[in-house]
Design a protein that fits this description.
The chain has about 260 residues and is of the alpha/beta class. It has 8 helices and 12 strands. The chain has a 5-stranded parallel sheet with strand order 2-1-3-4-5, sandwiched between helices. The chain has a 4-stranded antiparallel sheet with strand order 6-7-8-9, with helices on one face. The protein is elongated, with a radius of gyration of 20 Å.
Length: about 260
């Protein structure tokens, strides 16, 4: 069985692309090189690489949009390598799903170290753990009879975790926590369906308001991982959102 890792280098500067691909070849990767965004996306869909290095300045599609589309079809590691050094560019790159951001010019030794560091971290999909055994209809037996819970109009939850949908505020034990728009919408959707396993495709349609369901729904996992981290930091003893392997996610009511 061939266990070699694969990489796609997205770079319109041929010299830089050759240098990166040479480094990755020496590190044991099978490497493909794309000089524009359209070719890169086609390669990533076809080859399912383990790693993508991505320049943001491409002749056809902006690299940020390429990264966003990659995250719809792949959970590969993505390292942005770009001459854009502003903090805003780095934040945008990480927000749309990049795992690391390296500013040009950089040394090949630094790139090598960052690649090695990424592969010491599990991917989000590797962190999925089963929480219940699915019943024949795909819904865990333990939650099939769960019922909704709510409060005054626009409020869902209780003192432990309270969401005000009209003010778009989330409070844990009375303290407000800051969520992105997407994180808030994911939480509200799950809380409005307590005890129900919601599939990733259903979350895409509900939160992203799209009927397009890609082969991979990694973007859902990325935002849910960030949401769970923030909730865990606010209340370490609670685990409200559970992953049901092969099915989706379930919100466990925070009140009896």
């Amino acid at each position: 069985m061939d266990n070699r890792r694969t990489a796609v280098v997205v770079e319109d500067d041929r010299d830089v692309g050759d240098a990166i691909s040479g480094l990755l070849l020496k590190a044991g990767f099978d490497v493909s090189v794309a000089g524009n965004g359209a070719d890169a996306l086609a390669m990533i869909r076809d080859e399912r690489p383990d790693l993508v290095t991505l320049d943001l300045t491409l002749p056809d599609i902006d690299g940020v949009e390429v990264c966003r589309q990659v995250r719809l079809v792949s959970d590969c590691y993505v390292i942005v390598v770009s001459g854009r050094s502003a903090e805003l560019d780095r934040l945008i790159g990480l927000e749309v799903g990049a795992d690391d951001y390296l500013v040009k010019p950089f040394s090949m030794r630094e790139l090598q170290a960052r690649v090695a560091a990424l592969f010491r971290r599990p991917r989000i999909s590797d962190l999925v753990t089963p929480d219940a055994t699915p019943a024949p209809n795909g819904v865990p037996e333990a939650v099939q009879d769960s019922r909704p819970f709510d409060g005054p109009e626009g409020l869902i939850g209780c003192d432990d975790l309270l969401v005000d949908e009209r003010a778009r505020e989330v409070r844990v034990d009375g303290a407000e926590i800051e969520l992105t728009r997407t994180e808030f919408d994911l939480l509200a959707h799950l809380m409005n369906n307590p005890g129900v396993v919601v599939g990733r495709q259903d979350l895409l349609r509900a939160v992203w308001a799209t009927d397009f369901v890609p082969d991979s729904t990694h973007v859902v996992d990325v935002h849910l991982a960030n949401l769970r981290r923030k909730l865990r930091e606010a209340s370490p003893e609670n685990q409200w959102i559970r992953t049901i392997r092969g099915v989706g996610f379930r919100f466990d009511a925070c009140c009896p």
